[in-house]
Amino acid sequence: MSRTEVRARIRRVAFTALVVTACVPGIGWAQDDTDLAKKTQNPVADLISVPFQNNVNFGVGPDDDVQYILNIQPVIPFKLTEDWNLISRTIVPLIYQPELAPGVGEVFGLGDIQQSLFLSPAKPGKLIWGVGPILQFPTATDDSLGQGKWGAGPTAVALTMHGPWVLGALINNVWSFAGDSDRPDVNQMLIQPFVNYNLPDAWYVTTAPIITADWEAESDDRWTVPIGAGVGKIVRIGKLPVNLQGSAYYNVVRPDNAEQQLSPTSPMPLSLSLPTCPPTPPRARWC
Length: 287
Prior knowledge:
This protein is mainly β and 287 residues long. The protein has a single domain, classed as Porin (Beta Barrel), CATH 2.40.160. It is 6% helix and 51% strand. It has helices at 3-8, 29-40, and strands at 51-60, 65-72, 75-79, 84-97, 107-110, 113-121, 127-137, 149-162, 165-179, 187-198, 203-207, 211-214, 223-237, 240-253, 268-273. It starts with a helix and ends in a 14-residue tail after the last strand. Mean pLDDT is 78; it is low at 1-31 and 257-287.
């Protein structure tokens, strides 16, 4: 069973926790924390981070088992020139897969790694954006944990900030160009719109559903569309700013072939992000 089919068999609910470190003096914390919350909501910010996102998916396989996916997602900005940055975003999935069919057995291992690179203006205007390639590598240690294909395609992100609002979207499409000839071709799109509203005292509300389309599937089995929202807050543990977030998503559209086996239970992701601080140039205050 492909990873797309596994995702189609679950109704998504997500709970997320993030930890973010800032390289700033301990003054004006309330305002600084609100600004930091907005910066963490920008996918192409000049912020080094290493998020760990743990997804716990219920109702997987014939016995409605639990699937665990730990996504290690380092984000590293590189300063190319005074005018341009290159943002590297990597997803390394570690997956525990329950038995997907009688006699198949459970599996634990590495999934397919994805690498995105965004070329982004170092001094953006009202519209913040980044464009570049996305690459997929057939690194899965078991057939059930990946797609067995080398893939590539374009990716882009755009957002704007108006007062307390942070609004934008990320999109990519991956096509396979090599790999196991016995495995299906890959042609998949991902769209992630995001809307954040920042409140006083570094609280915020957010929605960022991940919408996917499998263009190789039949039209009735193509789309997965979740809806949901969450809430978060920047808090302090000593001098360490911590961004805690909880959110929930439910698939209102999913492939028809998942209807008969879909269980009423839901997956729960949990993520932890631990950014590090690069050498701070004279004008920079945040890492």
